[in-house]
Amino acid sequence: xxxxxxxxxxxxxxxxxxxxxxxxANGCAFMHYGDTTVLSTATASEKPRDGxxxxxxxxxxxxxxxxxxxxxxxxxxxEGKASENAILTSxxxxxxxxxxxxxxxxxxxxxxNMVMSVDPACxxxxxxxxxAAIATCISDIPFDGPCAMTQVGxxxxxxxxxxxxEQWKKGNLNLTVASTRxxxxxIEAGANEIPEATMIEAIYKAHEINQxxxxxxxxxxxxxxxxxxxxxxxxxxxxxxxxxxxxxxPEEMEEAVFTDEKQVREENIRVITEKLEExxxxxxxxxALLPDAIYQYEKKTVRKMILKDxxxxxxxEITQIRPLAAEVDIIPRVHGSAMFTRGQTxxxxxxxxxxxxxxxxxxxxxENEVSKRYMHHYNFPAYSVGETKVSRGPGRxxxxxxxxxxxxxxxxxxSEDEFPYAIRTVSETFESNGSTSMASTCASCMxxxxxxxxxxxxxxxxxxxxxxxxxxxxxxxxxxxxGLEDFFGDMDFKVTGTTEGITAIQMDxxxxxxxxxxxEGAIARCREARLFIMDNCMKKxxxxxxxxxxxxxxxxxxxxxxxEKIGDVVGQRGKTINEIIARTGVKIDITDExxxxxxxxxxxxxxKALEYIKTIVTDYQEGQIFTGVVVSIKEFGxxxxxxxxxxxMVHISKIAxxxxxxxxxxxxxxxxxxxxxxxxxxxGRMSFSMKDVAQQ
Length: 696
Description:
By secondary structure, the chain is an alpha+beta fold. It is 31% helix and 30% strand. It folds into 5 domains: 3-146 and 195-224, GHMP Kinase, N-terminal domain (Ribosomal Protein S5, domain 2, 2-Layer Sandwich); 238-309, Arc Repressor Mutant, subunit A (Orthogonal Bundle); 324-467 and 523-541, Ribosomal Protein S5, domain 2 (2-Layer Sandwich); 555-617, K Homology domain, type 1 (Ribosomal Protein S8, Chain: A, domain 1); 625-695, CATH 2.40.50.140. Strand 5, helix 1 (84-97) and strand 6 form a beta-alpha-beta unit. Helix 1 packs across helix 9 and helix 7 crosses helix 8 (284-309). GO terms for molecular function: polyribonucleotide nucleotidyltransferase activity.
């Protein structure tokens, strides 16, 4: 018999079925929150994977479109590769779970979360996060849980716990917080310039809710949890460390790693590695463990010097930012470009503007079709870290970094009415030594301003690191961490924002949570640093958005028409609008509300297209003057096209002041003529006169 456990969470019932389905998985939780249903499973291999020095954890979030009553598009009519939302959700689940597995565990672990139905009032991402934690806690997989997650929104200045899809989209805050029993272990946020104090309040509001969920999970584990299985430890033997220290003293290792040049440090470690390989050449067992042992030795050396002596590898003070540089317009002919450099981290961002029709359409678990007007893409080529590797397209890390920078800038973008463009920015990583996502935020902001996008405020971002000691009070916060401090430290706390408040947060840690003092300290440190970056670097390159878009960017003119006239502009099967586009070379977008946007690079052609549209939607009155082209000649008169798809007839008696016997005596096909409107004839057609034009 299966068991069902339930609790009240934010005014709705969260229930978990255990041993109802998925019984062959190590752990399975059949989750229900409202009508949202997610199947979460945790599985592990029986033996560790050979030849690896990391924990092979895979987290999957599967969006099944039947969950919202949709059939997938495309030829195959089945779900394909994971959507961007699925990848980002997988990353949010991964980040708090990974630190809670044993550091010396090398068995493959997969956490799979399959969304089977969606209630718009209960976001499936949250249910999957909780399901992954519960499935792992009740499994026999070693795990130092439980952990729990809560989402916080903000509507009209009030916090909303676990908001609905609609509240999540429209609110001023999208905050996800994961906690262990005592500490916060993960923070992910997008915000509309939320003040730091308000953000901290929201984080710890979520932390309180998480404690009630952990109590619920404890109850489930007590009743149905499996004993944790033993595993083969892959930890480096202490006797190997002792032998290494005899060959390479701590002073030698310290001298090797403490330099501000990444390449010099890597060369120093290469020399040390060769020295140790030679020393242990006859011990094959130790040789196999040597790379991991050297990494651990290097890590302990860096952490000790930072924690005890406040000495950073490149010699900076703990609050000091690396040398900064910024410039705009480094790429010709693009719509906007900027480069931001911080130490050995360098990002070039290019901005492209296009009509709103080119915004990205998203087919996901939202019942309504969703579109993205602003897109930020991030690329991380191997050459940026001096490696050789074939590009296989963006991975989860690249997608995550792009989404973070995108989230950082959305709050300051102009509305569609103010700036009717789709906007894409692309961050190309030229060089990387820590926190390229925050450099991408700075470069993107400047690129947007250089392109003439009237953003409301400047946005900058910075990352704060952490090294902890034996007690909660023993820690050092590091402003602007470089790669080595990220690898060997305990935290990567990224914060973006304006002078007024926070626009995005992403926090990764490698320990079992952060105290409130660390969270508050990191947020304060990031505010101080981002203001410094704006004032001392970014504003010197470009202080405000340019007043106009660049010469190579498309220009957009908007016109509001009567929605009932949309059909006249479009024409039968698009004939009229396509004819306007063919004649002028512009792009035309029309909304259901009758807003017409004409986009092009030639002002004359744009004006011509706009005049065509105005002519088509005008309610014709006697006396109006038009210029048109003779498109057809009959015995009784000529037809004049005065706008694409719009024609009127000039009777033979109205062509010339003197009597004529044949229309061809005066007109030929293709002649441009000026006519005056006489109203409509008995057949409902527009009636024109050429001979009466002068009288008007």
